[in-house]
Design goal:
about 35% helix; globular; Aminopeptidase; alpha+beta
Amino acid sequence: MPPIALAQTDAEIAACFPVMAQLRPHLSAADFVPRVRRMQSDGFHLAYHSDQDGIVRCVAGYRIMDLLFSGLTLYVDDLVTDSVSRSQGFGDRMIDWLVTRAREAGCSEFSLDSGTQRVDAHRFYLRKRLKISAFHFSLPLTS
């Protein structure tokens, strides 16, 4: 199994789009690379896990932030495994990889938000020993 890597090139970022679009269907392929590039300039990282054939099977977008309530925190913006590749260990390895990155960066917390409808993901996060620590509230400002 190839190691998890950070998407650095435009081709690597673009290869992550089909999996990311399963979690974020509102994104367009044409805007994905430029958008990730803009986000990278603000500290965003896009990690991916491929299979032995080089096909991206799991993607995670994350950033490290210093927050008053938790200190240095690795926050996962996006985490998704390709729907045909679930329960094959890709997500499990990605979470472990992200937690290792957090520890290496000296973070005091690892966190993510998950949509209320993603019940299977919640079971997975609980199995990985993540705790439900807050409610996330939002107010859309565009129609």
